Amino acid sequence: MQKVGEIHHEVHYNNGSSIKDSQLRTERVIEQEILPAIVKLSEVDDWLSEEIERTNPIRREGDNVDPNDS
Known about the structure:
Blueprint: H1 19-55
């Protein structure tokens, strides 16, 4: 697949904006903002999951549970 930056011709809308420029801006936002946010979200999700398990472990079937324990 050819990268947008390697394309030498451009298509313009009636308002003069370039489709190529738009695509480059979109790729920049994805690479510089969205992908790092996804990585951070994944890290926070892992931390929250560990924190929940640490503070309130899931009881599984067969675990001995004291009904007086709350």
